[in-house]
Every structure is written in structure tokens, then in C-alpha cells.
Amino acid sequence: MKLLRLFSVGAFAMLAAQPAAAYAPAAIPELAERAQERLRVCMGAIEAGGAERRLACDESLTGELNRAVRADLLASRGWISEAENALDAALRDFDAALKAVPNHLAALRGRAHTLSELGRHTEAAALIERAMALGGRATLLADRALLRERAGNIAGARADLDDAIALDPSNSWARGTRGRFRQDEGEHEAALADLDAALSLEPEVTSYHYRRGLSLVALARPREAIAAFDAALRLEPTVVQVWLERGRAFEALGHDGPALASYERALRLDGRHETSLSRRAFLLQRLDRVDDAIAAYDRLLAVQPTAAFGLNNRAGLLAGLGKREEALRDLDRAIALVPGDGNALRNRAQLLLQLGRNDKALRDLDRAGPGHDAGAWHGMRGDALLALGRPQPALEAYRVALALKPQDRATLFGFGLAQEIRGDRGAAAAAYGALLAVDPDHEGALERREELLPTLGRSIEVWPARLAGLWRSAGDSYERERAALQGAYRALWPQPQAVPAPLPVPPNPLAALDAALALDAFDVPRLIRRAQYSIGQPQREAQARADLAVALLLEPENPAALVQRARLNFRDGAFIAAQADADAALRGEPRSIEALFQRARALTARGQLSAALKAYDDLVAVAPANAAALLNRALLLQHAREYERALADLDAAVAANRADPDGWVARAALRTALGQTDAAIADFDRALSLDARLGQAWYGRALAHQRRGDAAEAAADFAKAKALDAQAEERYRAFGVTP
């Protein structure tokens, strides 16, 4: 103890003067590697989400003493906060980084961006100018362009982007942003050039594909626009606006089905997206799907009760169904929302005329003005005035309407009535005659003219019209009788030998699916159907995989797609993945027969036979007559030595599908093993009557004959089995076990 006390104090002083790290314990390699990894995650060298990056920055900062590295970490964390709109936290980190390293370029840029977000544009611009003195001018010009845009200086922003691209043509952000500016200014060809250049540098930026689609639509190139929107959606399938614009492009192309599907997919992502609700309702209305369109407007108005156009359009649909009072309520609401809406006022006027509320109709027409169809407006005014007992102003309105639309039937008839009420029978008869020249079968005009002509002393003119009507009806009767006589006449003559019509060629489902998917590559039900048909066709399996990948990108929990992927995984020997897909499908559709079947197959292949047997029990409970499930369960029951249950399942499998030779062979094999040789031979005979090429059936029947002592028959069957299939014995053994 004394010797320890005599240890020199100077020695401690000397030790303290050395770098601490020289005497620190050696770092554990795993910890050092983790520290380096966390630092790289924070700095963005390893891709990670925002939350993981922030955590990595926090961990790295706790143990980092080097000022330059700390500045890098603080700047990186500041950019993460800026991206998350946590602007105060971002400023704190950028300030701390600049305190550590006063000219830290990333911190200067980040602080400028954050100040600009806060509206402090002058301070932001000063920081960018300070940063430019340090280098990286092309990047900083692009930064300044963004800051100038936020400050409203679009011309300055354009100039900065031009300069940035001149200095560094590989700056994809500058290219993409200039493309956006050009697009906003209507320079769509130039915008496409910039966006194409940006995509050649960074092909996985969703906004570049989306913007490119918008310019292609503006250039009336909707098919290319759809391809651009599809490219955007393959990167980010949950962007509502892209689905909306894709739907519009399909409408421009004249393909309403895919357009409707695009709007509906947008609404799956955001059920309250007003523009998608509107476009869907408009499209259903244009397709004359009246009930669906009304329901679509109901949905729109539930989200946006003040959408006057929705009320107006729903009113038109309701009126068409004869629901006039409901339609009137919608129009009243629409006009209350937008009192000067001429379209709604004219629509309400038309409805009020039908309801006999003529004074209110006239008031609405006068408030609305002519609009885009002045002829119809003047005609409706004439109708309202005439109904109110004012024939003279009605005539004036009709004259203006006829000057615009000389052959309008309703206006011509109203003009005749107005002349008749006014007492000018000759002018009325002339008006009805003009209408009959346009529409010879107009009952109202025929009736009024026949009544007027005798009072004018022109009874003889009634007869030509009547005769014309008689000739028309007689002509119709003559044509019918002539057709009947010709049919009878042809029947009397010997008929030439009929050439048999060629048998109809069954439609090729894959060709039809290919054609449909060439139009709309994101039609999920068709993608799944094409994959279903393609699995098992070697030249098609790559397409099946691609189709399922797209379907599950768009609908990750789609049970039908998951089931088809389970099939592919099973074929690949990936039994765990196959079971996982089947389980996921069953979460969506617990009674899916195909999903239950795939799950049971996967469990069997994994050797989990008890679980597989339970899975087949679940399947048979849902589909008691599923022959494949019964057959597979029977094989598992044989393995478990439950022979009576197995035989019952095979009886049920054969009853469910008498055309499947496998069921007969499986039952025959079990009967052979149980010593029921006569019944087994009968089953083998039935299997061979269905398919005489089955080597396993010949082999099994040979065994049955052998057990019965029929040596000659057994030898012949063995020879036949060997000739047909060298693996006949192996295939036969797969059907069961020997008790």
C-alpha cells in the first residue's frame, strides 16, 4: 500500500497530457461498425425513412466530438426537419451546424430554404449569395430559383434555372423545375424536352412522369399521356391526382370504361375527392346510366353540399325520371347558392312550365337571359306567355325563335296556337302546315289543321293530308303482306342444298385480355384473369408474374391476386411464401375455396400433415363437393391410417367428378390395398375408359389381378404400363399406402 502511495504525481500529469483516445479501451468492432452505419443512415448514404434517419442522427450526435462531423450531422437532421415542415427545429440545427463550421454549405442552403418557407425571403437570398462565394454555383442557382419562385419572382427564377442548366446540364431538379415553369406558361413542347431530360437522369421521380402526362394531354396526345401517368403510378400508386388525370386522358381518348375505373380508383384512395366525384358523376350521366349518375351526384353532394352544378345536373336526371318536385327542390337550392346561374334558372323555368307554374317560369327566363341557346330561350318565353293568355307577345317571342331555329317543332306548334288564339286562322293553318312539312305525323298539327281548314272554306285541302296518311298506312300494310307472300312463294320452290355453317371458333380468352390490357394496363380484374390463364404456359409465366406484381402494387390485399401468386410460389417450391399468400388472401375472404386449397397444398408440401388435414377439413366444410380437396384429404387420411374415412372421401370425390380418372385410380388403389380386388378392378376399368394412356392405372390393375391370382392378366397389364410410362409404378404409389 505504501508503494502505491509513493507513485509520482508527475506521472499522472504526464498521462493526462496524452490524447485520451490513446489510452481509451479499444472499441468493440461491432459497435464501431454500427456507429459508422448509423452515421451513413443519417447522412443519407444508406436509404431509410425520415423517422429512421432522424433516430440515426440523434444516436450519432450523442457520441460525436469532431466539429466538422457534428456540423454534417446537424445539417442532415435540419434537412429532415425542413422536409417534415418542423421549421423551428430545422433552424436550430442549421444554426448549430453554422456555429460549429461557419461556412458549412449544406447548413447555409438549409437555413436559406427554411427562412424562405417562413416568408423571410430577403434573409434567405443573402444566405444563398454568401454560399455562392464558397462554390457549387449551379446547385445554388437552382436553390435561388426555388426561393425566388416562393417570393413570386417567376422571371428571376426562370433566369436562375437557365443559368443553372447551362452550368450543369445534369441537374435533374433544375430540368424538372424548368419543365414545370414552361408547362405553367403553356410551352408544352419545351416542357416535354426538359422533363424527358430530367427523367433520363432520374427515371424514378414520380412528379416528372406526372408533369409529362399533363403536357401530353395539353398537346392532344392522350395515349402517350396515359403511358406517362401509368409510369408515375408504378412508382407511387396512391397519388389521387394522377388517377384523376389518367381518367381525363381516357375520356379524351374516347374510352369511358377505363376512365370510370380511374375515377373510382381515385375515390378508393380518397372518398371525398371532389373533382373525382364530379368527373365520375358527369361520365355516368353522359353514359345515360341514370340511376348510377343520380347516386354519384348524391355522393358528391354529401361531400360538398354547396356544389350548385351537382344540384343542377341531378335535377335534370330526376326530371327525366318524372320526379319533378324533387328536381325542383334541387334547382331551388342551386339558385339559392348561385342566384345568377342562368343555366339553373333556365332549367327551372322549363320544369315550371311542365308543372303549369307559368308566371314563375317567365320570371326565371327573364332573369336568366338567352344563354348559349337563344332559340330555345325565346321558344320557352313564347310558351310561358301563351299559357298566361298573352298571344301577341308570345307571337313576337316565337318569331325570334323561328328566325334562329326555323324547323323547331315545339316553336312551330306554339306559333300556330298563338295565331289561332289571336284569331288569325289562316296564319295558324300555315304554321301547322309548315310543321307538317317537317314532321308529317305530328298529331297535334294534323288535328288542328283539319279543324281549321273547313272554317276557312278550304275543306278540300284536308283530303290530301288524310290520303297521305292512308297511303302511308296502306303502304305499311302492303309491305307486310308482300313480305309474307314472298316468304310463302320462296317456300314453294326447291331449296338449294344448305352449305353447313363453319363451326364457331371458341373465343381466345387470352387474346381478349391482351387487347383490353393494351388499352388499360391497370385493369386489376383482367390482370388477375390473364395471370390465372397464363400460369402453366411456359411462354406466358413471365407475363403472369408481371401482371400479379402490378395488381398487388395497386391492391396489395387483393385476395384473388394473392391466390394466384400463391400458385406461382408453390410451382417455384417456395412453400412458405405460398402459405403466407394464401393466409393473406383468407384474411380478406375467409371462405375463398381457392385460398383454402392453396393453403392446404402448401402445408402438405411443408410436411405439416396434421395442419394440412385440418386445412382440408376447413375447405370441405365450405365446399363439400370439391373433388380435388376430397381426393387430397383422402391421401392424407391414408397416411394417417384412417382408411374408412379415406374411402368415404374417395367415394365422394368420384361422385363429385365422375369424369376425373384420378379419383377412380385413387379409390381403386385403396380398394386394392384393402383387399377389395373386384371393386378395385372395376374402378381401374372405369379410369381406363376415361383415359387409356394412364400408365398408373394399368399398373394398379396389374397389381389387383396379381392379388386375385390372374397371372396372365397381371402380366399383360404390367407390360402395357411399362410401354406407356416408365414411371408408372412411381405415379401409382403416389395415390396411397398399403394398410
From TrEMBL:
InterPro entries: TPR-like_helical_dom_sf, TPR_rpt, Ycf3. SUPFAM superfamilies: Protein prenylyltransferase, TPR-like. Keywords: Repeat, Signal, TPR repeat. It comes from the Bacteria. Pfam families: TPR_16. TPR repeats lie at residues 206-239, 240-273, 593-626. SMART domains: TPR. This is Tetratricopeptide repeat protein. Residues 1-22 form the signal peptide.
